[in-house]
Amino acid sequence: MKNVIYICIAALFAVLAFGSCNDEIDIRQDYDFSLSSWYLQKQIATGETVEIRFYLDREGDYEKAEYEIGYIQMEGKGEVTDCEGVKLVNREVRPLAEVPELDTENPVRQVFTLFYRSTSAKRSELKFFVRDNFGREKELTVTFDVESGTAEE
């Protein structure tokens, strides 16, 4: 009788242990992300260069996730460069990993800096976008008004 009880208990444990297993492994690769920037000045003079510090915040870390950065000049004229002076081309993308001084210390927050130099006396509006290799894309619009007067030196 004892053997029957031990066998029933062992069978019950086996059913509970193996019955709760799930062969479907949920591995997430395409985490959502956001693109934001540090405080930006509101006005810019012709020929002035401003720093734009970006933050790419991700919901999770997947080491094979790849990102690209690009921009579209919506209004005005100007140039976007990285810290080494390499120009980004309007309406073209560049791998984010190629941006110099990309801070990847925190796996879910990447920080990078680009510079914008206005070459016209008109309001500048740029739409920056980052896309990942899973098809997600986020945009950030940056606007600089023209300085109303030029200070004399």
Automatic annotation (TrEMBL):
<dbReference type="InterPro" id="IPR038707">
    <property type="entry name" value="TraQ_sf"/>
</dbReference>
<dbReference type="InterPro" id="IPR024355">
    <property type="entry name" value="TraQ_bacteroidetes"/>
</dbReference>
<keyword id="KW-0732">Signal</keyword>
<dbReference type="Pfam" id="PF12988">
    <property type="entry name" value="TraQ_transposon"/>
</dbReference>
<protein>
    <submittedName>
        <fullName>DUF3872 domain-containing protein</fullName>
    </submittedName>
</protein>
<feature type="signal peptide">
    <location>
        <begin position="1"/>
        <end position="19"/>
    </location>
</feature>
